[in-house]
Amino acid sequence: MIRQSLRGAASLTFAAVIAFCLAGAPAYADDTEVTIDNFTFSPASLTVKVGTTVTWKNHDDIPHTIVSAGKFRSKTLDTDDGFSFTFTTAGDYKYFCSLHPHMTGMIKVE
Amino acid sequence: MSEFDHNHDHDDPRQGSGPSRRRVLECMTWAGTGVLWTITGGVPRSLGLVDSALAAAPTGLSFLQISDSHVGFDKPANPNALGTLEEAIGRVNAMPSKPSFMIHTGDITHLSKAAEFDNAERIISQAKLDVHYVPGEHDFLDEDVKLYRERYGRGAKGAGWYSFDANGVHFIGLVNVVDLKAGGLGNLGAEQLAWLEDDLKGRAKSTPIVVFAHIPLWTVYPAWGWGTEDAGRALEYLKGFGSVTVLNGHIHQVMQKVEGNVTFHTARSTAFPQPAPGAAPSPGPMKVADDKLRSLLGIASINFKAGEQRLAIIDTPLQG
Predict the structure, then answer these.
(1) Which residues of B touch A67 (CB under 8 A)?
(2) Which of residues 63-92 of A touch B (CB under 8 A)?
(3) Is residue B135 part of a domain?
(4) Which terminus of chain B has fewer CB atoms gathered within 10 Å of its CB, N or C?
(5) Which domain holds residue B102?
(6) For the domain that residue B128 is a member of, what is the CATH number?
(7) Residue B7 falls within a domain, yes or no?
């Protein structure tokens, strides 16, 4: 009995380690998208893990930019253009559109 | 929507004190193309002045404002922005008396591409008028931010501000589309404000002043970024001048406000209309029926007569 439950615990731990590795690996399911519609970032606030790549997509008929002071700066995104950035360091990344500064958003990297 | 809807209904506590709305609209129908704005004692008036303006060729200085050509724009709100710019210039060429010059209040191009600047120049030059430009945010989108400066910024200060005199009127072109701050509005910046203060220093208070810039220098609708963060500082320096006219673009519709001796006015775009503040989920291009588009695009002509405090502004749609 004791032997069996120990073995069970060990395999559970093993499964958890595999799951953790998958979650931490880049380019898996947790890469995510922020859309721009009607001069609004959606979602406006997003929490991601270190290593995540976020892609912004502009669906408006007007160009926008993605600028996080001192961190990253996209080219001008025309309609349906996108911009991707991979977050390798934890922290709060506030960003905005430098053409329409009332458009703001935040990526929280943990 | 006509300019009367904007000017008489928007923030206007004087409903009923001027000509009735019905009479104004009748008058506009009669006038056909343009609307004259003249301001007496802070109250916008139109009736009885449209005919005199149309009948009499202006004596004094007259100049034109065009704005927001967005050359290169090809989305559903107007698939041919270059074509409507050409129509606007056709209107200019058909004017019975030639204006002295033209000002362009920015967003000449949609994406700051060299070909867009080339096309804009090719069409606008057909008016055979001097053109004084200020940039819009759409004119600074090229990688090196140099195409606008190379063409229009020579001799200007900083990002492209300058002043000049014509017929005793002092004109000031300002730039409020660079170095915008997250969450903020248009921005003039400390360097430009210091230059403005110096430019106005020692000037006779009787000198009529015309200030032009892309984004409105009054707060039209902050939720859409329609205003300029530090415009209040600029207006401080303009205090005491007997006649100040502020001409802007950016919002693609006619709006006017009078505050003391300062008249604020925004011009239509020649490319596409934008919604009235708060009337849509965003300020993006407004798609209207094809046969309505040209009634929402247009140009403005501004007449100045010596001795008169207010400049008369006539907004003319491409199609009545």
Answers:
(1) 182
(2) 63, 67, 69, 75-76, 78-79
(3) yes
(4) C
(5) 13-317
(6) 3.60.21.10
(7) no
ipTM of the prediction greater than 0.85, yes or no: no
Domain ranges of chain A: 32-109
Cβ-defined contact of B184 to A99 (cutoff 8 Å): no
Element (H, E) at B39: strand B35-40
CA-only gyration radius of chain B, Å = 18
Total domain count, chain B? 1
Predicted TM-score (pTM) of the model is 0.81
Mean pLDDT over residues B40-51, rounded? 34
Instruction: Write the class of the CATH domain A32-109.
Output: mainly beta
Nearest in space to B173 (alpha carbons), one of B255, B261, B97, B63: B63
DSSP codes joined into one string, B56-124:
SPP-SEEEEEE----BT--STT-S-HHHHHHHHHHHHHT-SS--S-EEE-S--BSS--HHHHHHHHHHH
Pick from B137, B222, B224: CB nearest A99: B137
B106, with CB counted inside 10 A (0-12, 13-18, 19+), is buried
Q: Is the pLDDT of residue B17 over 70?
A: no
Report for A36-50, B25-39, B44-58: range of highest mean pLDDT: A36-50
Of B137, B222, B281, the CB nearest to A38: B281
What would the mean pLDDT of B194-216 be, rounded to a whole number?
97
Apex A26 CA angle, A69 and A47, nearest 5: 50
Chain A nearest-CA distance from B254, in A, is 20
Residue A102 to chain B, least CA–CA distance (Å): 4
